[in-house]
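Exercise 7. Predict the joint structure of the components listed below.
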Amino acid sequence: MAELIIYGIVLGSIISLGAIGLSLVYGIIRFANFAHGDFLTAGAYIALFLVTGVFSWIGIPDNTFGALSFGWQMVIAFPVSMAVVGCVAIALDRILYRKLRQKRSGAVMLAMSSLGAAFIIRMIILIIWGADSLFYRPGLMRPALELPLGIKIRPDQILILLIVFFLVGLLHLFLQNTKMGKAMRATADNMELALISGINTERIIIWTWGIGGALAAAGGILYGIDVQLHPYMGWNFLIPLFAATILGTIGNIYGALIGGLTIGIAQQVSTAFLLPTYKLAVAFIIMILILLIRPKGIFGKD
Amino acid sequence: MIILKTEDITVGYTEVDILHDVHIKVRSGEIVSVIGPNGAGKSTLLKTIFGILKPRHGNVTFKDEDITGLKPDRVVRKGISYVPQVDNVFPSLTIQENMEMGAFIRRDDYSQRLDEVYDLFPVLRERKKQKVGQLSGGQRQMVAMGRALMLDPQVLLLDEPSAGLAPVLVSMIFEKIKEINATGVAMIIVEQNAREALKMAHHGYVLAMGRNVLNDKGEALLANEEVGRLYLGG
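Solution:
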C-alpha cells in the first residue's frame, strides 16, 4: 500500500503539471481547453524526436547519469521541448482561439474548437510515429531502490518528483514576486479591471498559454520517462487533468497541485482492488462526485 | 481651463442608443457631479469617456486632444483613471498588490505616490498584506480609489462611489473625495446620492432618459426647486 501511494504521488505530480496549466488558462480565458492533454503528448514526442533523432546526429553524447535512465541528451531536450510546446500553445491561441474570442464566441464554441485542435495534434503524432508504444531508452530498466517499509522506487521517479516540485516552486515565485506574475493573477481575478488599469491583457494571455504549454510538455516527458510514450497518452490524461483541476477549484494553481496528487494517489491505490484498466474510471468517478457534492472544489467559496 | 469635455455623445450597447447628444465640461481641479434617475445613462457616459464603449457619434476631448474611441489601456496612459461601480478591485490580490496593479504602466519609482495614497487611506497601510476579498465594503471602495490614484491622474472618473455603503461610510468616502480633489485632481462623479454629490460639486449636470436636462453650479442646482422635487426627493 505504501508503495502504491508513492507511485500515486509520482503519477499525481505529473497530472499536477497538466492541471496547473489547464487551470491557469481557464482562470484567464474561461474555457475548457480539451487540447491540453495533447500538449503533454506533443511535449513527450518532441523530446523523443530530439533524443533519438537530432541529438545523436549532431553528436551529443548518449551516456546516462549513474542510476538514472537518461543523460545529457534529455537534459537539453527537456527545456527545448517545453519551449516548443509553449510556442505551439501560443500559436494555437493566435490562429484559432483569439479569432473566436474576437468574434465573441461562447465558451462552448471555444471548447469544441479545442477538441478539434486536440485531434489535429494527435493525428500528426500518429502519422509521424505510428500507434505503437515507444520508449526514450528501449530495453533499459534501472533497478529500483529499496526503502524502509518495503517501498521500492526507481531513481528516475525520485528525480521526477524533484523536477515537478522545482517547476511548481518556480511558477509560485513567478506569480508572487514578478510584475508579470502579479498581472497574470490580477487578470484572472478581473480582466476588465486589468484593462482599465492599463495592463495589456493580450500579452498576459500569451504568457499564460506559453507557461501552460511548457508545463504540459514537462508532464508529458516525465510520464514518458516513468512509463512510456503513446499517441493517446495525453488524451487519456484529460479526465484526470479535469478531475484534478475541478477538485482543486478551477483557476487555483495550488488547488490544481493538490488535486493532481489526490487523483494520482486515488488512481494508483485503486489498483489494489480493481483492475488497472479502471484507473481512468476512478478519476472520472471522483470528478463526478466533486461536481455533485462540491462543484466549486476544495478552495471554492460558496 | 477646460481639461475634459464631451460633445454630442450618442452611444448604446446594442442598436438602441442610451445617450443622445450628451455634452459635459470639466475644468481642471473641478468636481463635476452627474445626477439623474436610474437608467438615465450616467454610468454609460463614464464608460464612453474611458473608451469602454465607442460612441456612435460625438467626441471626447482631453486637454485639446481628441481621445474618442481610444481603448481604455490607452486612455489611462493619458492621465484619466476610472473607478467602476462594481468589480472595482482584484479580490485575490493583497491591498499592496492592488496598488501595484494600479501603477502597472509606471516605469518610474512610485514609492512616494504609494505613501501619499496610504496617507490618504491609513487603514490600507495597516492591512497592506491582507487580501482585498476579505475587506469590508468601505475598505474595498478605498482600495478601488487608491488603485485609480496610483497613476497620479489629472481626471478621476468615479461611478457611484457611495453605492451599497452604510451612511457613516458614505460621508467618510465623500470626505476622502474632497481631500483628493484638494490635491488638484479633477473629477466626474456619478451618484444616486444626488444631494451629497451636488453639495461638494463645483458644477452639476442633470441627465434624464439619456439627455442633458440641466447644468449649473452645484449650489444653484441644490437651490433649484424643480431639481429638488424631481431628483432630490423633495
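Discussion. Chain A has a mean pLDDT of 90.
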